[in-house]
Amino acid sequence: MPKRVLVLLAVLMLLGLIASAQQYPVTVVDDRGLEITIESQPNRIVSIGPLYTEILIDLGAIDRLIAVAASPDNPPEVADLLRVGESFSPSVEVILALEPDLVLGAWGAVRDQLEELGIVVLTTGRSGAIIASVSDIFTTIRTVGIAVGNSARAADLIGQIAEQIIIIESAVLGREPVQVAFLYMSVPDTAPYAIGSGSIENELILRAGGTNVFTDIFGFPPVSLEEVLARDPEVIFTDPDHVENVLESQLLRDVTAVRDGQVFGIKASYSTSTKVAEVLRVMSEFLHPEE
Amino acid sequence: MDITVEGLRFSYNGKPVLQKINLTIQEEEILAIVGPNGSGKTTLLKNISGVLTPEEGAVYLDMKRVTDLSTREIARHLTAVEQEREVGFDFTVREIVAMGRIPYQGRFARETKEDERRIIKAMELANVTSFANRSIRELSGGEKQRTFLAMALSQEPKVLLLDEPTIHLDINYQIQIMEIVRQQAKTGLAVLMALHDLNLAAQYADRVALVHRGRLLAIGEPKEVLTPTNIRRAFETDVVVGHNPLTNSLYINTVPYRRKVSTPLGKVHVICGGGSGVAVLHALADRFSLSVGVISPLDSDFQAAQRLGAKIVIDAPFGPISPKAYKENLDTMRSSDGVVICDTPFGPGNLLNLRAALELENKVNIYVLNPEEIEKRDYTGGQAAQLVHQLVRSGAVPISSVKELKRCLAVDYCSTDRGVN
Amino acid sequence: MRRSPRGYRRRVFVILLALAAVTLVAGVIVGPVYIPISDAFSHLIGRGISADGSPSVSYLIISQIRLPRVLLGLLVGCALAISGGTMQGLFRNPLASPYVLGIASGASTGASLIILLNLHGVLFLSLGAFIGGSLAVGIVYQLAQERDRKTSVYTLILAGVAVGALFSAVTSFMIFLSSGTERMTDVIFWTMGSLGRANWTYLCVLLPIVTLGSLVLIAFSRDLNALAMGEEGAFHLGINPETSKRIMLGVATLLTSSAVAFAGTIGFVGLIIPHIMRLIMGPDHRFLLPTTAIAGAIFLVWADMAARTVVRPAELPVGIITAFLGAPFFLYLLRTRKARM
User: Fold this and answer.
1) Residue A163 included in any domain
2) What is the rounded CA–CA span in Å between residue A249 and residue C9?
């Protein structure tokens, strides 16, 4: 190659490096609507929520992750990583002792204390650190991407997930929506908890070609068995450990889903993760198997 | 320090409880308030001590209205011991007596040497020193009352109000408390106490106030106030007021409820006197229609007979029986189904009763109590004894006890051919 | 007692003060992160800022996390214990607690509402709890007033039960409304109590309230003693029962509401500590209240130390520990001592 081209390439690469190095400081908006400024690339990251952990892994930033909060939903890659407490009750002291430059996913009193001690905390989602939709997941990925300096990778990730979702959705477009209920019944034949609107599961059901029979209810309240009978879903999603409870339920015998054996286990934690498209695919396969 | 109550009126929830009460209490005097339950005794005390505020009228403590004084000022001059006091925690006796000094102590003050002296003295006066370190909850009713009295005394009041200090106490504790109170009154304390026991009031109070339905019925010395008339009005019961020579005070005895003998088994005449007939009369009153004679109205058996509704043949005392009384007596005996001669002492005044019995010539059953002891009761130089022995010889039944008498009469009644007598 | 009561009491008091000092130090030394004791001590006396003016991490932990937490524990423990002792004296009932007038339920409702409305910040939370608690007591007090503006303690307790139940129902309803979300966990954890929200600013607010309030209550010890004779008995001793009751109830409510506002509803401290101290010190409130205050402070800090370390690095709500510690110790005391309640 002529020498001039090599020099041009080197200069371009240098410019590129400088360009990427000039990313910082960055400012992002958190779930409270407040602006969080990150001065420089964070290399000592503590993640409180499994979603953030997954994102870091997918963005290739796992080597910058020094500790996580304990959670059953933690991905296996962090099995040997230091723990800072439970995800619902992390220890401020332990976090402080690690001298992190970024803490992801903390909320409430813990976040207030950390911020007072001058630690940068980033949590996204709706007010209250809630992830209730696919777009919330995208926001989280994008925000974390900017924060850790991998916005390009983040954009790619978002694109990938969006792509998968579109494929799945279009496959079931035009089909008759299936009546679905997403229940939790940890004790057989007792009033189950139903997932209603305002949740990501609700959205996923819609996208997978179904209708949530409990969409008129907000949140995750207990409902009477009568309601389940009255609304008669054709398919019931539930926690994998509760499938037996539903199938063998005496009182739900006459529900279409139970009669036809259309009760499937879906791990809800996968819905608030980067694997959300996987969950969607599984759901759509259950709802529209001919596809 | 004296207390004046003027025109006091008080109501609970619109129901009038006290009406137009006027009275005064002086130093060194004990004023007892008596009256039936619900007459307003406790309410009166509470109005005087300041716990309640009068509707009309006022209570004056040495010319100052009680309602104008602060609780602390009141407590330095007047204190009260209520009827029921439940102590919430395990305070010792000494700790409780020490609380009497609170009206004289500041918020953070400790006990001074003076305080300690007074506490010890109060405990001695009320006789609680021996269990000063025991918990109040372990004590008996009498010990508790003395403790509260000690607390009141350590407060060194000039006026002491006691609401039923002897209720629920055994008799020995009752006397104990009253003696302590009397002692204190002698040293200058003015005492006002509500009592249900009229005899205690009579014995210990200098003056008595009788309350009935919220009004002051009478106030004055015990013998003026505690009359059968007043007591009948206030308590709706009949009493007999006597004099107790041991305590030199009057004593009140209630008259037992006169049971109407529905159908007397017969008529019995009792020859008695000097108290010898009381037991017999009482024993026979519910079965037989009784008559008594001859006795004088001064005789104690007279009162008993009167109470029991017996027919009484009376005669003037201190003299032999008049012929008129003798005849009446004889007629009464003749119409009786039985005659009982009690172990009465016989003197010239009542000897003729025996003669009358002899004149019956045993047409009526005669029962003689303890005839073998007649000599001890004979004050007629042997005549009475002679008559009694004669009675026994001619068929009078000797009886040794009232119980036996009852049995005998019952048997005889059963054996009597009714319609023939 | 063979020993002079005064000497015995003085000794207990001194022991308690010494224990308090030990507790303060222990609370600062103990924690999920290991800090050498010598370092801890030097941080306590203010050393730990490195040459460039920035504080070392262990200094931050000691001064910003542990020390405020221990101080909060001392203040809250003191407030709850002395309020509990006062309530027991006022109601002449050793089973009364500072929550007997519905404060806990009211505060829970207030806090839950704040959480549910998504208002962020400990300040809102504390305000909500404080207002809720005070509102509950205010309602109870109004309900219990009789015609002549006197309040019978009997009616107060009954009204407290009723109002407390009402507010509890409202809280449960709010938990139901927030079910499935993190907010539910928030509310439930708040009701279990925690010293994790400690902060120097809040300490500055709480310190004067607790010290002044405690002093006022101690100043009314005599009144409490007199009230043990019944309200009439107290009247005859020169106390004005209505005024005294009102002041003591008001101050105790203030202390309890403030404590609950910052720490949530921590149970047992206000019930058991005064009870235990009464077995040791006797019922005279002049000695009972101050020692109860110190004992409560000590107890809560130790309970919090346990809460911070038994499942480290997670933290248990301290209310769980207070219940676990309080009950067996109390039973032990009941058995070994002749009840000198």
Assistant:
1) no
2) 66
d(C-alpha A241, C-alpha A266), whole Å: 9
Mutate to test the interface with B, among C229, C286, C337 (most CBs of B within 10 A): C229
Q: Helix-strand-coil percent breakdown of chain A, rounded to 5?
A: 45, 20, 40
Residue B134's domain spans which residues?
A: 3-254
- Give the domains, in start order, of chain C with CATH numbers: 5-336 (1.10.3470.10)
Task: Sort A118 into a burial class: Cβ within 10 Å, 0-12 / 13-18 / 19+.
Answer: exposed
Structure tokens at B177: 């408390």
Binned at pLDDT 50, 70 and 90, residue B420 comes out as very low
Q: Does residue B421 fall inside a structural domain?
A: no
**DSSP reduced 3-state for B41:** helix
Minimal Cβ distance to B90: which of C1, C89, C340: C340
Mark out chain A residues that contact chain C at CB-CB < 8 A.
32, 70, 83-86, 88-94, 96-97, 99, 107-110, 112-113, 116-117, 127-130, 193, 195, 199, 219-222
C229, B96: Cβ pair inside 8 Å? yes
Using an 8 Å Cβ cutoff, are A269 and A50 in contact? yes
Q: Read off the pLDDT of each residue in C82-110 and give the average, rounded to a whole number.
A: 89
Tell me if B211 is assigned to some domain: yes
Percentage of the residues of chain A whose pLDDT score is greater than 90: 54
Position B420 in a domain: no
Task: With beta carbons less than 8 A apart as the criterion, state whether C200 and C62 touch.
Answer: no
Contact C33 A94 (CB under 8 A): yes
For the range A244-252, what are the long-range contacts, defined as Cβ-Cβ under 8 Å and sequence gap of 24 or more?
Answer: A244/A188, A245/A185, A245/A186, A245/A187, A245/A188, A245/A189, A246/A183, A246/A185, A246/A192, A248/A188, A249/A185, A249/A188, A249/A189, A250/A189, A251/A189, A251/A225, A252/A189, A252/A225, A252/A228
B72 and B182 fall within a common domain:
yes
H helices of B216-322, where? 222-225, 228-235, 278-285, 300-307
Last residue of a domain, one of B221, B254, B287: B254
Same domain, B279 and B230: no
What ipTM describes this predicted complex? Answer: 0.84
Q: Is residue A149 part of a domain?
A: yes
**Start-to-end CA span in chain A (Å):** 53
Domain end position, chosen among A112, A131, A157 = A157
Residue that wins the pLDDT comparison between C334 and C283: C283
Which member of A32, A108, A219 has the closest CB to residue C181? Answer: A219
**Interface test with chain C among B89, B105, B155, B156, by most C beta carbons within 10 Å:** B89
pTM above 0.80, yes or no: no
| Distance, CA of C253 to CA of C137 (rounded, Å) | 8
B131 domain residue, yes or no: yes
Scanning C122-181 for CB atoms below 8 A from A yields 122, 176-181
How confident is the model over A230-268, as pLDDT tens digits?
999 999 999 998 999 899 888 888 899 999 999 999 987
Domain count along chain B: 2
Q: Do chains C and A touch (3 or more CB pairs under 8 A)?
A: yes
Res. B416 pLDDT band, cuts 50 70 90 = low
Cβ atoms of residues B62 and B1 within 8 Å: yes
Predicted confidence (pLDDT) per residue in B42-53, tens digit? 999 999 999 999
Contact at CB, C177 and A219, closer than 8 angstroms: yes
d(CA A193, CA C176): 11
B-chain CB neighbours of C229 within 8 Å are 85, 87, 96, 99
* Chain B touching partners, 3 or more CB pairs below 8 A: C
Question: How far is the alpha carbon of A279 from chain C, nearest alpha carbon, in Å?
Answer: 20
Tell me if C57 and A97 make a contact (CB, 8 A cut-off): yes
Q: DSSP secondary-structure letter at A76?
A: G
